[in-house]
């Protein structure tokens, strides 16, 4: 029988992309339910739901930093492991996996200790007020206790899909999400735990997902396995993971800086209610972007494997199809936010003032996201081809170079609406630059391949 990893190079491309992408999309959509379901329930707590929603919203940058470190080890290592599988170098692939495990363990300890100690000043810096800090602290204190589960569930799941097992990767996320959806109303309302109940439900769910992932990666069903002898910091392997992992790390960790800039700007020029709109819109952003990430991440192992095998035509064909699908997805999903913002806004709050304010600014904020599928497809291709430097440039451009400075500058001249307008301006410019860089990079990769 053909191994799962071998079909990446030989199965019919259309059917293969669907079989890889659909479970990955399902996994990403299910994964985003962790935060979205929490916020939906929290926003409807009688008496203080809007303040609790805002409080939980300002914890988002910490959650993003934690997931960014898992992406550093997972998305930095999994594409390289896929390339090694394409070269039939299974031992090297397992060394990469083992180093990722070691890195995730270290990250878990450092992140938990740091944020538990400094959570209060950090939350204030992220936009919390005296009215919302109590809810922010309640949520993040419990969530941090499960940092190690988040690291393993997110960081190691990429190694399952990277070897051609997207359905198994999807099931690991599905397990946690279903448990989370069941436990949320029980803990929040049934046991009257409020915000603490939402956090507890989340970490229990992540623990189950992490257990599923580890169980698979130590079993004979996995093409590459976690082996104790490889769980160590080998300099060459760690540097290889870091060179590629720095890009997705920056993409996710700088999202926390973006949230700080947006939340503090909205607090300064608007107030708690405006920060509440960003809590809703950041959740909607996840709903739009995460499925597209699922498409691109599901397809990425096909490109990495065939790049390692030297089949550039199959890499190109995969890329073109992926970008078209990603663009179609963002046009549709972000288009709803632009044309029918009430569809999303009503999900998260029954407060009429907060909902009306969100509907007013959502079309402005999401305008540029309609074409963002192009950038996400190109960004994934950079990672798949091992182009760490170019991927890093794109990661820095949109958020650090463009979005954060614009979010600080615009409201000085436009008032609070300037905070929302910064997003589409940054999106349109970064997509244009990404297209140019991808054309140049592809020509370089093709030339290097033909010289070998």
From TrEMBL:
GO terms for cellular component: plasma membrane. The chain crosses the membrane at residues 12-34, 54-75, 96-118, 138-156, 168-191, 197-218, 238-262, 274-299, 319-339, 364-385, 392-413, 425-442. It comes from the Bacteria. Keywords: Antibiotic resistance, Cell membrane, Membrane, Transmembrane, Transmembrane helix, Transport. Coiled coil: none annotated. It is a multi-pass membrane protein. One of its GO terms (biological process) is response to antibiotic. InterPro entries: MATE_fam, MATE_MepA-like, MATE_MepA_subfamily, MdtK-like. Pfam families: MatE (PF01554). It is found in: Cell membrane. GO terms for molecular function: antiporter activity; xenobiotic transmembrane transporter activity. NCBIfam families: matE. Belongs to the multi antimicrobial extrusion (MATE) (TC 2.A.66.1) family. MepA subfamily. This is Multidrug export protein MepA.
């Amino acid at each position: 029988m053909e191994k799962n990893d071998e079909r990446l190079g030989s199965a019919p491309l259309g059917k293969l992309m669907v079989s890889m992408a659909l479970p990955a999309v399902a996994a990403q959509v299910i994964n985003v339910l962790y935060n979205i379901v929490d916020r939906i329930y929290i926003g409807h707590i009688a008496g203080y739901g809007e303040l609790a929603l805002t409080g939980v919203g300002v914890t988002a940058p910490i959650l993003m930093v934690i997931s960014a470190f898992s992406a550093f080890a997972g998305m930095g290592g999994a594409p390289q492991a896929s390339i090694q599988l394409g070269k039939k170098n299974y031992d090297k692939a397992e060394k990469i996996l083992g180093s990722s495990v070691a890195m995730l363990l270290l990250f878990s300890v450092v992140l938990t200790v740091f944020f538990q100690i400094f959570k209060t000043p950090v939350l204030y810096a992220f936009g919390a007020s005296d009215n919302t800090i109590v809810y922010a602290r309640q949520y993040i204190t419990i969530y941090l206790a499960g940092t190690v589960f988040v690291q393993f569930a997110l960081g190691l799941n990429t190694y399952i899909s990277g070897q051609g097992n997207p359905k198994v990767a999807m099931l690991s996320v599905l397990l946690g999400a279903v448990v989370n959806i069941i436990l949320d109303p029980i803990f929040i309302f049934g046991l009257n735990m409020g915000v603490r109940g939402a956090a507890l439900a989340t970490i229990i769910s992540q623990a189950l997902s992490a257990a599923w992932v580890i169980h698979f990666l130590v079993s004979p069903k996995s093409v590459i396995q976690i082996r104790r002898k490889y769980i160590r910091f080998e300099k060459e392997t760690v540097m290889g993971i870091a060179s590629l992992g720095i890009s997705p790390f920056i993409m996710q960790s700088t999202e926390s800086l973006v949230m700080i800039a947006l939340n503090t700007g909205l607090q300064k020029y608007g107030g708690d209610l405006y920060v509440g709109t960003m809590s809703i819109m950041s959740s909607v952003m996840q709903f739009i972007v995460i499925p597209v990430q699922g498409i691109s991440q599901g397809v990425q192992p096909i490109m990495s494997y065939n790049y390692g095998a030297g089949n550039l035509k199959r890499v190109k064909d995969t890329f073109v199809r992926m970008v078209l699908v990603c663009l179609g997805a963002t046009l549709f999903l972000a288009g709803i936010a632009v044309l029918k913002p009430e569809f999303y806004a009503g999900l998260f709050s029954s407060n009429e003032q907060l909902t009306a304010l969100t509907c007013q600014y959502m079309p402005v904020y999401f305008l540029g996201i309609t074409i963002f599928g192009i950038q996400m497809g190109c960004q994934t291709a950079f990672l798949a081809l091992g182009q760490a430097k170019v991927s890093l440039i794109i990661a820095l451009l949109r958020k650090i170079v463009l979005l954060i400075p614009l979010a600080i500058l615009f409201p000085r001249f436009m008032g609070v609406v300037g905070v929302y307008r910064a997003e589409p301006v940054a999106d349109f410019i970064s997509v244009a630059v990404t297209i140019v860089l991808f054309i140049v990079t592809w020509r370089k990769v093709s030339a290097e391949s033909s010289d070998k």
